[in-house]
Amino acid sequence: MSEKNTPADHDFPPYHFRCPISMELMKDPVTISTGVTYERNNIEKWFFSYKKKTCPATMQSLENFDMIPNHTLKRLIVAWQTEEDAQNVICSTSSTPRPSAKHDEIQALLNTIMSSPFKVNSIKKLRSIIDIDDEMKNDFIRSNGVEVLVQILDQILLESSDFTTFRACEEALCILHQLPISGEGKTFKLLSKQESTRSMTVMLQRGSTEARLHTITIFKKMAKTEYDWSFVIQDQGIDFFKSLLELLSDEICSKASSCALKVLIEILTASKKNKLRAIEAGAVCVLVELLPDSNRSKCEKMLHVIKLLCECSEGRQALVEHSMGIVAVSKNMLHVSNAATKIGVKIIWLICNFHPTERVLEEMLICGSVKKLLALLQMDSRSSTKDKVVKIFKMHGNSWKRYPCFPWDLKDYLDL
């Protein structure tokens, strides 16, 4: 059943603090000409890297691409973060890092790993040291440990690789997934090499449950950087998306499922070609079937992915052809959260705007979509969501008003 009231939900960032593109907490919010606020890096990538000329949230065509810093929102976000930030601030009093207490042992294990064909036990011992604290991780990185483990990853691509090599690769991922990954860091540069990403996609498809979790955790960290996924997708095709969707369906490991969602959002935002690959891999079907039993945060992200896919005609077709497609989206409106409602309305708006067949419109009425839209229409506050609802009724109200269950008192209000 649903986990909508999980204990961890209380500290989930409020919807208006999250970027509509990535659904992550904004650090540098900027507002564009449509009045929608985004994380600066995300909207800059949308405009200048992906060459888009629309507002991602409203899909309005734009002529003005100015970005105005939203200082008020930033102050609110900072205030919300104060307690967490206070706990996480780490003050460093020394500019020159000193070797850790386990430095000699780390060096000895790295030397053994490089020289011995039997690497698994040494990597396990190294892992037990790295698990102690951040000091050990930093010492490991300074000792060129990442280079050693990445070489092990690359061995899995050789034709001579065997079970022992595969196990060593899995153990290496146990360490690598714990390390910080930033766009300018050495760890990122090594893991983003073509050989390394190809090795990790192999582990994503064939590794153990633990290895797959560690791999998708690394991919999630890479997704937060400026990493270009085009090589991975060109190299792996729809198999890469099938691996992500398989993780998304994993009922045992919710963390792996959450990471897969975040990676999907980043990849699908990048280009239409990526969306088409995901649709071909069966993404719409998988998401629709997972929606009913998802908790709040996962439900919002799944709806966000469906919205991205429905920006393509193939995605809209897949949604309306699924017997539970429109039902699953509509059920979450006014039921899960304001964010889920807002995204759900965007999906319905895309369907009504680009795929308004008579059968689809009738299904919306039967399954309760129209009832939910009417409830939103009668809310007092003005919003972009309510504006979309009004447009939906202006487009298709004349079709729905033929049915006896349509409220006639709204006919004049909608100019039907």
Plain-language structure description:
Among the domains are: 15-69, Zinc/RING finger domain, C3HC4 (zinc finger) (Herpes Virus-1), CATH 3.30.40; 103-227, Leucine-rich Repeat Variant. It has 22 helices and 3 strands. It has helices at 40-49, 71-88, 103-115, 120-130, 134-142, 145-155, 163-176, 186-191, 194-206, 209-223, 230-236, 238-248, 254-270, 272-280, 283-290, 296-309, 313-321, 325-332, 338-354, 358-367, 369-377, 384-400; strands at residues 29-31, 37-39, 68-69. It has a 3-stranded antiparallel beta sheet with strand order 2-1-3. The chain is elongated. Mean pLDDT is 84; it is low at 1-11 and 89-95.
Offer a concise description of the structure.
The chain is mainly α and 416 residues long.
Q: Structural class of the secondary elements?
A: mainly alpha
Unreliable parts: 1-11, 89-95
The fraction of residues in strands falls at under 5%
Spatial ordering of strands, largest sheet: 2-1-3
Task: Characterize the quaternary organization of these chains.
Answer: single chain
**Rg calculated over all Cα atoms:** 24 Å
Termini separation: 41 Å
Q: What's the CATH first level of the domain at 103-227?
A: Mainly Alpha
Question: What is the CATH architecture descriptor of the domain at 103-227?
Answer: Alpha Horseshoe
Q: What sort of overall outline do the alpha carbons produce when their principal axes are compared?
A: elongated
Estimate percent helicity: 55-70%
CATH homologous superfamily label of the domain at 103-227: Leucine-rich Repeat Variant
Largest sheet: 3 strands, antiparallel
Instruction: Average the pLDDT over all residues and give the rounded result.
Output: 84
InterPro entries: ARM-like (IPR011989), ARM-type_fold (IPR016024), ARM_PUB (IPR058678), PUB22/23/24-like (IPR045185), RING-Ubox_PUB (IPR045210), Ubox_domain (IPR003613), Znf_RING/FYVE/PHD (IPR013083)
Enzyme class: transferase
EC number: 2.3.2.27
Keywords: Transferase, Ubl conjugation pathway
